[in-house]
Amino acid sequence: MNAPPWLADAQARIRALVTAPEGVAAALRESEDADGRALAELVCGDRELPAVERLGVYANAFFERLRGALAKDFPDLARALGDDAFHDLVRVYLMLHPPHRPSIRDAGASLAAFLREDEVAAPFRRHLPYAGELAAFEWAQTEVFDAPNAAILAREDLVRIPPEEWPHLRLETIPALRSLQLAWPVQELTDDGGPAEAASLTPRTVFLRVWRHEERVRWYETSEREHACLALVSGGARFGEVCEELAHHVGDEDAASEAAGLLARWIADGCLKTRSPA
Question: Does residue 166 form part of some domain?
Fold first, then answer.
């Protein structure tokens, strides 16, 4: 059965009021329905709770649901900022990056970039200089936790490959893996399972590999060389190209052995998947 043609317009109007940053009443005053008569035809009200206030209840619940979801996805950021500042961050962020999907799963997808780059986020950067880096680290953990499973590549899968074919071998990273370059060592905030002293954190460039293995999200601080090589593998490079990258750093003689060491580490950590059929 097809929905009546007016339903989509009604849904869009209610959504706009529920998500209005300034609140339902203020948004209504700025609309063509300043007296709320048209809204009263869509939302039932009574003497105790008029339509505007009734819809306001839903608007408050909508924001609180999103704030709770973001606090769950970014627990260390919420703790480091404090309740009031995190509340303000969510409100400003949602004004500029409202969710556009029925699921709230991706509500925080733009938070790291917002904190790092947006001028509106400058007060939060002054309050917490590494806020954007911490958000990027936590969002990577969320992404790998939810990423699809894949058949993990084992050492035995490579044993029968003839030596002459190794330069042309293509490796594939698992979907549940992210490589990060961060300006602050924010992983130290959660070392040993609890938050470290934020005051002791000093800026330095770090390279992190974040992945899921055996149903657990893990992270590992890599070298810049390993980070570059893993980026090549993630982009579909052949093993020979990884060796060429390493040759720029360690020379031709040691490149193959170092590449083999990286490959062994990635296999042991469950970071590579079996090759997709051609």
Answer: yes
